[in-house]
From TrEMBL:
Residues 1-150 form the N-acetyltransferase domain. It holds the Pfam family SCP2_2. PROSITE patterns: GNAT. The lineage of its organism: Bacteria, Bacillati, Bacillota, Clostridia, Eubacteriales. GO terms for molecular function: aminoglycoside N-acetyltransferase activity. GO terms for biological process: aminoglycoside antibiotic catabolic process. It comes from the Bacteria. Keywords: Transferase. InterPro entries: Acetyltransf_17, Acetyltransferase_Eis, Acyl_CoA_acyltransferase, Eis_dom, GNAT_dom, SCP2_sterol-bd_dom_sf. This is Predicted acetyltransferase. It comes from Clostridium frigidicarnis. The keyword Transferase applies. The keyword Transferase applies.
Amino acid sequence: MELIRLNENFNKEFLKVWRNSFLDTQTFEEEFSMRFFSQDDLWNQAYGWIDDGKLISTYLSLDVKVLIRNKEVRAHYIDGIATLPEYRNKGLVFTQMLNDAKKCLSNNIPLMLVDPARDSLYRKFGFEFALNKYATLIPRDFLYETKDYKFNYKISSGFLSKNKKLQCDYKELSNWFWQNSRYNEMKWPKCYEDIKFLDYEVKIVVAYDDNDKPIAYALYNIGKTRMYIKSFRYMNLNGFYAIKNFILNIDNEITSFYFSSIPEDFPLDILISNIWANDRFLSHNRMISRMARIIDFRGLLEKLIVFPPKREISIYVKDDKLESNTGAYIISMDGKVMKEEKIDCEVITTIHDFVPLLTGLKSAEELYYNGKLKVGLNENIQQSNLLIPDCIKELTYILPKSVTYNSDEYLAP
């Protein structure tokens, strides 16, 4: 078996592997999938395993940029992992991931990202839950009209694939969010960023202020009696209310609204009047939406520290796959991180257990309570905030818990 970079000549074989791996013939035979795989620059990111001239496994490795704690971080996003059933459990994915990790290390790319479709497998390679989002199903009569918030605005809507003006407004807002957002924005390569303009079913509504400047948008499509809102982004409160009013005034045959991607701090309280009525409940679910793998522990930790510690902190990290990460680290009072040869460390952890602390998904206290950050030899950890070790409090201070919402719109097949 040989690992090679693929080209457009593998288009049909690539789709065949996906159909057989995911047991989904319909999705990957739709015209949208064909348009996705016909993009020339997609094949700059495509790899696969060949056995006796036959494509048996696929792997897309994308150069991306992601905002973590409002810091821009280079990363590799892994997608399209598929292996024919008879070739699974042979270490093909692990080998490709290790090659990718080594490539990241040599190119100063400190992070790898993947969606958690097979989280138990990815965790074995050092990935862990990193970012999340919420999905909410709202009955129409739970929404309420805003009467005490007055402002002027304009609305324009249509199919995103057909309206060049709406595409430009969408791009303008996306650029604003990249520069100003408090969430985990991501910059995709062109083949992924532009695919939403090739999906003929996606609609967009854009809100404008008095100066015709775009201030908010929502991506959506309409089912029989339900509006599916894929993304709802706004740069100010006027924009939020403008999109809300558009939703309220949509076709009366729409009986419910499904928001498939909103942050933890999305202001539901100014969108709905109640969460329960007439034996019906608001459905509001948290979903882990991205996993991360730390490639350069020292560099990434130093970059993402929010506040320097009030005293030095020592951490020992174990990495079973990348030995360069294994070792003792000192976080100094100026926020610098140094790797040391031989010292006794206050905190002991693994490379994957540290991921949710680094991104802000979990606090140091949560990880300590669950045995993910170990202090000393005590395995029976008291569940009391009165007994939290000082070093754990310092880690909470320098890496506080935050809203970890991956706001990027993944609209590939």
